[in-house]
Design brief:
mainly alpha
Length: about 280
């Protein structure tokens, strides 16, 4: 019995891996304040590689599907943080337009670059994120306050464009930037949940549109968003997100951050190896 070109046993393994991906992404989001996309994209990339999805669409599918999964988790997260008064609503309003412009730009660029280029972008930024998570210190600062309106516009549009191309929410870059400019970590995490919504909605729509009619996509894909991945990952991520928040008080954040940085390092090196060896 086959489905999507997979035997039943392989399909069950694939489904199980997607569910585990969702759980891990949700837990890490709660523990570290990073968006689930930084976990979902590399795992989807590896899974799509294992089942033989064409290299030309592999990373586009991973990025588009990841952006789709971020939408419901961001909505739930930002509502929970907003009830506690932790979201900087004024910052979200200031950043909304430049961030949307950045997302649009990133989505257009991603649509026109090949799979190898998109993989190289993710691998490079993942390496930088891994370095920051492993060696970054809480006392590091770029300033005591965010720059003026123009400077914040540049920051927001850059976060939007790079995040859209990588298939991640605003947490990975938003938390880092805000804390480097003196924002309290809890406020940075809460506000970044709102950034995730600004990035994921237009980003997912853009990847749906840009992937219409493209060959080599697996069944049940709307453009570059795979509905099977969406259906399995989203419930698991939503369920697991509160677990991460609870575990944050019982586990060393530094040790976990370094372990996750090691995972990102291995992912980045694996992607670069694949690019150099044509697979």
């Amino acid at each position: 019995m086959e489905f999507m070109g997979l035997e039943l046993g392989e399909l069950l393994l694939f489904a199980g891996a997607l569910l585990v991906t969702g759980v891990v992404a949700g837990i890490l989001a709660g523990l570290l304040g990073v968006g689930g996309g930084i976990v979902i994209v590399p795992v989807l990339f590896h899974m799509f590689t294992l089942i033989g999805i064409d290299e030309s669409v592999r990373m586009h599918l991973a990025v588009g599907t990841s952006l789709g999964t971020i939408i419901p988790t961001s909505i739930r997260s930002v509502r929970a943080h907003h009830k506690k008064g932790a979201v900087d609503v004024d910052l979200l309003k200031r950043w909304a337009l430049p961030m949307l412009i950045g997302v649009a730009l990133g989505t257009v660029v991603a649509a026109y670059v090949n799979g190898a280029a998109l993989t190289a972008i993710f691998a490079t930024v993942a390496l930088l994120v891994a370095f920051n998570m492993a060696f970054g210190k809480e006392e590091w600062r770029l300033g005591d306050a965010l720059p003026g309106k123009a400077g914040q516009g540049i920051i927001a549009s850059t976060i939007g464009s790079v995040s859209a191309m990588m298939g991640i929410g605003g947490g990975t870059f938003g938390v880092t930037i805000m804390t480097l400019f003196g924002k309290p970590i809890h406020q940075a995490v809460a506000t970044s949940a709102g950034l995730g919504l600004l990035i994921s909605v237009p980003g997912a729509i853009g990847f749906m549109i840009s992937g219409i009619g493209v060959e080599a996509r697996p069944p049940f894909s709307v453009g570059y968003v795979n509905l099977i991945g969406l259906a399995l990952i989203v419930p698991a991520t939503v369920l697991a997100a509160p677990w991460g928040a609870s575990l944050a008080h019982a586990i060393s954040r530094k040790a976990l951050a370094r372990a996750f940085a090691f995972f990102l390092l291995l992912t980045s090196l694996r992607m670069f190896y694949g690019l150099l060896n044509g697979g």
